[in-house]
Amino acid sequence: MNGMRSSLRKRLVLGTWLLLLMALAPPFVYFDRTIREDMLEEARKRATETLSSTQWVLSRHAPFGSEDALEAWAVEYARHTGVRFTYIVDGKVMADSDVPAERVHLMDDHGGRPEVVAASRGGSGMEVRYSTTLRKDLVYAALRVEGIAGLPAGVIRVALPVSEVRDRIDSMETGLLWAFIFSLLASGGLGFLVTRPFLGGIESMARAAQAIGQGDYGRRIRDIPGRELRPLAHAINGMAHNIERHLAVLEEQKGRLEAVFNGMREGVMVLDAEGRITTINRALTTMFEGIVSKIGRTPLEATMKPELQRAVDDLRAKDTTEGRAIMLELSDGRAFEVNLVPFFDEAGRCVVLVFHDVSEREKLERIRRDFVANVSHELKTPLTSIKGYAETLLESPPASCEQAGAFMRTILKNANHMTKMVNSLLVLARSEHKGEKRVLAEVDAAEVLRQTLREFQPVARRKAIELVCEVEGAVTVMADRDGLGEVFRNLMDNAMKYSPEGTRVSVSARPGAGVATFCFRDEGPGIPENSKERIFERFYRIEREGDTSKEGSAGLGLAICRRIVRSHGGEIWVESPLDPATRRGAAFFITLNTPRARVGVV
Ligand code: ADP
């Protein structure tokens, strides 16, 4: 900035000086030359005239008696005319108006002086020379003479100053030079003063432009130093405005993208050209604990999964824009489908990884596979038995009618078991299908419960079981009547089935705020702690020693109950044992919404 300022200023001052020099120097040199030449010319002319007039005066003079007489005349002549007069014979000075008589013979030989040499040779000679005696330029003019005023043949020499004016001109020139130097200094100072506000304006403009360049896009140039710079200032201001606007748009887009990025359910990981993690989204941080601290590391370091790193390395090594997908299973049972897509930035090939959590899908798939296997297995056992007995009856009929009857009863029992299982499966399938569009209405659950108990009266009587109904009045819930009946029947069926003879089974209903709770209690063997959740899974049965009730049990009843209860927005669970001393007894609870809490279609 300062550099620009000084160089601009320097150029300006130097330019002015050059201009001044160019304007003043040629006329100065020209006039100086001409005047000096003219002066010299005039001095020469004067010298010639003086020489001829001196010769004339001398030629009229009576012969000099002695050298001293000539000397005296010379002094007198010089005094009147102001001209130095010298008479030289064969190089030796005979008389000189400026040198006293007694010292004339001490003067050095003048025969070698150019004007004397020229005069001795051809009549006259002239030279301009600086006189050390008088300390100024003198014109020397010499003429050879013979036989005048009784003098021996010699050379007359006159010397007169080139000009008095010349000294004046010299001093004038010195004055002029000083004036010139002064004007140079003055123009320099003036240049400094004139450029100050202008350069100051440019400086503040440049400062504003610099600030804009460094990211202060809200900054504008307000002081414009001159009209000529106005378009430049407007252009810079416009540029800053545009950058500011584009930045705002970018910022907004970035915000939107970030919202999408972080709102995604899929986990996203972006790798740079070196294969290191640069960005991750929120979903990914919930998928891999502590991954936030792994930014800048490789996917292997972040997930400890070599197969993921291999897939990334493969993709980075290949020259393709096509992505690929891999399955990733974690040790905790979760499963991810990872899509790897390459993209390019200025540094090279980068990769974006999208993690879909497919644990649920995988789990459902596994359940489906297990279910099919279970169903096949459950049906195969009674079927094998039926087939075996039927074949035996055909191929080698038993001898006694009694034995044949036993065979057929076994066949019938197995067929009944299969029928029951297929029926249960149908109920389960129906309840699952129905679950999505079950129409709920106000139902008096107490009434349904009493009806169910009535159905179980004969069984209870047979097993000497005391059936206690602790339900009074009406308990209205939002339910599908058939579904509700199915649940109550299943729970009652289990209670009756697992209760030993002579025990008690009681049912109760408690209406609450928004939900009603129903309970089925028995004094049976109870449910072990680790099976309390699992008994609600399909085909799960508790193996008990000497348990005969297993026949006709498919392990589907409670699964059906849970399916139906949940589709009502309720919950089902078991508490067991009920008697800490005997560690027996089980209580199955279900909750259902009452009309105040929920009305309509689920
Ligand atoms: P199942 O059709 O075999 O009764 P459930 O799904 O109804 O199948 O029951 C699953 C398992 O839960 C049964 O094998 C049984 O051992 C156990 N269970 C169910 N109800 C009771 C109960 N009231 N008392 C003890 N065990 C029970």
From TrEMBL:
It catalyses: ATP + protein L-histidine = ADP + protein N-phospho-L-histidine. One of its GO terms (molecular function) is protein kinase activator activity. Its main location: membrane. Pfam families: HAMP (PF00672), HATPase_c (PF02518), HisKA (PF00512), PAS_4 (PF08448). It comes from Nitratidesulfovibrio vulgaris (strain ATCC 29579 / DSM 644 / CCUG 34227 / NCIMB 8303 / VKM B-1760 / Hildenborough). SUPFAM superfamilies: ATPase domain of HSP90 chaperone/DNA topoisomerase II/histidine kinase (SSF55874), Homodimeric domain of signal transducing histidine kinase (SSF47384), PYP-like sensor domain (PAS domain) (SSF55785). Residues 374-596 form the Histidine kinase domain. It is found in: Membrane. It comes from the Bacteria. One of its GO terms (cellular component) is membrane. Keywords: ATP-binding, Kinase, Membrane, Nucleotide-binding, Phosphoprotein, Transferase, Transmembrane, Transmembrane helix, Two-component regulatory system. GO terms for biological process: osmosensory signaling via phosphorelay pathway. This is histidine kinase. Residues 196-248 form the HAMP domain. SMART domains: HAMP (SM00304), HATPase_c (SM00387), HisKA (SM00388). Residues 319-370 form the PAC domain. NCBIfam families: sensory_box. Its EC number is 2.7.13.3. It is a multi-pass membrane protein. It is an enzyme of class 2 (transferase).
